[in-house]
Specification:
Radius of gyration: 18 Å
Number of helices: 4
Largest sheet: 3 strands, antiparallel
Shape: elongated
Oligomer: single chain
Distance between the termini: 37 Å
Helix content: 25-40%
Strand order of the largest sheet: 3-4-5
Order of helices and strands: HHEEHEEEH
């Protein structure tokens, strides 16, 4: 590669490294600050070539995604995902008290609230007397959403 900085994947690769390795990067606290690392095969003088070799061509409209958001960037944990897929693959907020993404206790009204995000917007599923009922409502809504996305061709492979 004559000038790797002009390669379509260069900025993706470089930003991934900065988020994990540069404490001055705006997103470091959510990546390197949490222990998220970049696989050594994707670092060093052959790092970019190895990254491109593993990840291949990025489909239009897709971005780099980690399958397990608690693990680092590695060939085993990375894939190209659509924005909708990424919205389904989010880590839990640090202030979550239920232990389940999208389920929280509403103290004032004394019920469990369930929600999912669709196209970046909260879709409220209702208030429930028990945490288990709220979790089940969210699971069912996610299943319905992922099946609809899969049928529309917006989810690849085994994303369900």
């Amino acid at each position: 590669m004559s000038n790797i900085k002009t390669h379509p994947l260069y900025n993706t690769w470089a930003t991934m490294k900065k988020r994990c390795n540069n404490p001055n990067h705006i997103s470091y606290k959510n990546y390197g600050g949490r222990g998220i690392t970049v696989d050594e095969r994707w670092l060093g003088s052959d790092g970019f070539i190895n990254f491109v070799d593993v990840m291949g061509v990025r489909p239009e409209g897709y971005t780099l995604d980690r399958t397990d958001n608690e693990k680092g960037y590695s060939p085993e944990n990375c894939k190209w995902s659509s924005r909708k897929e990424q919205l389904l693959n989010r880590r839990m907020r640090s202030d979550n008290t239920s232990g389940v993404e999208g389920v929280r206790w509403v103290k004032r009204d004394k019920y469990w609230l369930a929600r999912i995000k669709v196209d970046g917007k909260d879709q409220y599923l209702g208030g429930f007397p028990t945490k288990e009922q709220a979790i089940e409502a969210r699971k069912q809504a996610l299943l319905k959403l992922t099946l609809a996305l899969h049928e529309a061709g917006e989810l690849k492979g085994n994303s369900l």
